[in-house]
């Protein structure tokens, strides 16, 4: 079966080569986090990569990573532009911020026609999620059902996704019998220093179970999902077309489909530890983490040899 990895990279900024956290070298040969995600996806069985970027970044993006990856697998590019809106809507004057992760995936319409997995460019997810999701797509996913969409996600353990250097936002999941019941975007989640976590709002700290499963914006879906995104984004723009800050986000869209009964989401628990450069102080931790992964034999020195 043909399967596609989609990498959302349109928000990485325009100053390549210096100061862009998503493009900071973290591996022994200058690898960036995307290199490892692509390696793990190909190893799991995905056989095509689509990069979602901005058109003005294409030349530099190809030079930094695209040209290298094109040598190991088929690649394509989708362009998320703030003014590229469906349904005849126009971008409001003064809006420069992208419309969010749902809008990003919608940029793949006409490019992705296979079951796909979408990820963030700047998150390291570990190998387990890629393998479990690819196996689910190939062996269990109901690809042909256009009425109730079959979606899957890895359920990361919250405690494995926190930064030592500040708060994070996570999609906190309610799960029953291996199925997602609901997802709540929750900001200001901190480590408590004792192996636990809490959410801070208005100065009030509320404990949260570190074993709670969370989404890390890693979703597997059928091609029909993109068509559904377009219809829902048009509806969203009907309410938010003049809003300079509104975002059409994947977790909210998935939650909406769940509540409407138009999708089911299989949750595949993973114990893999997430890391990323959320804060500048995280960079050394990420570098050290990759060194340990090499020492443990998880990766060989030349990733794609």
Could you explain the architecture of this structure?
With about 300 residues, the chain is an alpha/beta fold. The protein has one domain (about 5-295): Alpha-Beta Complex (Spore Coat Polysaccharide Biosynthesis Protein SpsA, Chain A), CATH 3.90.550.10. Helices cover about 30% and strands about 25% of the residues. The chain has helices spanning about 35-45, 60-70, 100-105, 125-140, 225-240, 250-260, 280-295; strands at about 5-10, 50-55, 75-80, 115-120, 125, 150-155, 170-175, 180-190, 195-200, 205-210, 215, 220, 265-270, 275. Strands 10-9-8-7-11-6-13 form a 7-stranded mixed β-sheet, with helices on both faces. The protein has a 5-stranded mixed β-sheet with strand order 3-2-1-4-12. Strands 5-14 form a two-stranded antiparallel ribbon. Strand 7 (about 170-175) and strand 8 form a beta hairpin. It starts with a strand and ends in a 10-residue tail after the last helix.
Helical residue percent band = 25-40%
Gyration radius over CA: 19 Å
- How much of the sequence is in beta strands? 25-35%
Mass-distribution shape: globular
The CATH topology assignment is Spore Coat Polysaccharide Biosynthesis Protein SpsA, Chain A
* Sequence of strands across the biggest β-sheet: 10-9-8-7-11-6-13
Mean model confidence by pLDDT: 92
Largest sheet: 7 strands, mixed
CATH superfamily: Spore Coat Polysaccharide Biosynthesis Protein SpsA, Chain A
Number of strands: 14
Low-confidence stretches: 14-18
Secondary-structure element order, N to C: EHEHEHEEHEEEEEEEHHEEH
CATH hierarchy, class: Alpha Beta
Structural class assignment: alpha/beta
Number of helices: 7
Number of domains: 1
Instruction: Give the N-to-C terminal Cα separation.
Output: 24 Å
